[in-house]
Amino acid sequence: MMDVMGFFDIVLALALPWLGWRLLASSDLFRAVVLFISLGLLMSLTWVRLQAPDVALAEAAIGAGLTGALFLSALRRLERLSESERRLEHAGKREEDETIPPEKRRRAKPVAYVLSLFLLVVFVLLLGWSLGQTPGAKGGLGPAVAGQMGQSGVQSQVTAVLLNFRGYDTLLEMMVLFLAALGVWSLTRVRQTQQGEVPGPVLATLVRLLVPLMIIVAGYLVWIGSSRAGGAFQGGAVLAAAGVLLLLANVTVVRQVPAGLLRWALVLGPLLFLLTAVACMGGGGNLLEYPGQSAGVWILFIESATAVSIGVTLAALYAGGRPPAPSAPEKDNEEGPGSGVDKGGKA
Amino acid sequence: MNTLFLYTMSGLALFAIGLHGLIRSSHLLRKILAANLMSSGVFLIMIVGACGTDQVMIDPVPHAMVLTGIVVSVSTTAVALVLVCLVQETTNRALLWQKRKRGQGGRTDA
Amino acid sequence: MAFLHGLGMVCILLGIPFFVSGTIGLLRFPDIYTRLHALTKADNVGLGFVVLGLALQAEEWNTVARLLLIWLLVLIASSASCHLVARAALRRKIQPWTRP
User: Fold this and answer.
1) Quick one: pLDDT band at residue A307, thresholds 50, 70, 90?
2) Domain range annotation of chain A
3) For chain C, what are the domain ranges?
4) ipTM topping 0.90
5) Which residue among A61, A85, A91, A322 has the highest number of C-beta atoms inside a 10 angstrom radius?
6) What's this model's pTM, rounded to 2 decimal places?
7) A216 at the C interface (CB within 8 A)?
8) How confident is the model at residue C14 (pLDDT cuts 50, 70, 90)?
9) Domain with B69 in it: what CATH number?
């Protein structure tokens, strides 16, 4: 049995760089993104093989799923933009120069290519050598964490590190996530044309079936996080997937969410986390030093709040912009039946 | 032990391929994909470093750091993708590629 | 217990050929519709066998329930995504393959 697993390890370890190479070498961007998603899934398998189930869950949900969805929606938007540009070009004059893909122009310089490849190989060899020189940190902080588990208030070591021993990491990470949402919101608005087509009956049924289930699963993941693999990030990712599904299906409920509620949901996690951290200082402790035996309760409290915020933030990142102005939905409704009629005409 | 070495090499290769793609590819979307590959390679090396054997315990701290890293990389990716869309919107192309005038481009192409 | 364990192993081994054939179909079939057919049909049967095998090996009812839930979810998701992909392909006017 061990030999089978060893063989599997070899195949997996070889497949990862190979897929990476294929995805960067492919000329089709859509293919590259699909390969990227499959690479993420293989990474998730690798995490399981390397005894990191928490990371595997997060990678499958966030690294492969949500990042892939982000790339696909960005790709669609880029294609739509270039299509409208091409239409403009057709209307006006056509420039031959622009049809040459820049990759081909670059191929024409073999010296630069060889030189960059050579430098890369040298760099990687140096990197590998320095990695070999690093003093072996075997075991590392494992025994230290195991020794302190009694005070952490949870049974899962990763959760204890994330929300107790190195809580400030997670606090700052929530802030990064929040900043990303702010950045996206301040850069663009969601346009009406981006809000998709009319969902078919299958997608609508799927959403009705899956979204409640996903919310339950998210809650379960947050709850189980205190003792096994799971936690706020995994739960939040499942919530975000539910949000993406709702956005894809173009359900009217999504557009009727009041803007204030959305903003509060974005802020909820970081704000409560920060308030808790500061409140811990009030009792004479350090930042995020939970008082007495209550650490478990605090962690569950923070995790629930952050899971909601992570879900909403990631879904907002997928939506890719500030929600449209209140008058927008009516325009969208006008567009919906129109495209439906158009489809009927073609069929 | 041997398996761990294999995975370390795999992570190193992923990092190198990502770096190569980041420098070489011209389309911005592919550059972001390459940056994501690089981070995947780094995560892989970190987790391999934390991997326990029969005598040694698993180190949960790198696991937590990689979890944090995954979420941070998804947020940076999201912002970068929005920026790419903006670049395409304003310059009509998603490339970090100076558009050359026709007269100047001929010589280097040959 | 050992009997159930062996039976579970047999079920899992029975499921693997379906996954293999589904993957071969995905790689070798000529157009998107036949590929979808291979992928969803064969893989779902394979998944059924694997879940059955794992459920036979499970030690608690708790685990069995979770496995069944996973099976159900994958069935729903794969059939729905198959439908969506095929619908998108039809909308782009991709013609089904016919024997030349």
Assistant:
1) very high
2) 1-82, 152-335
3) 2-91
4) no
5) A61
6) 0.84
7) no
8) very high
9) 1.10.287.3510
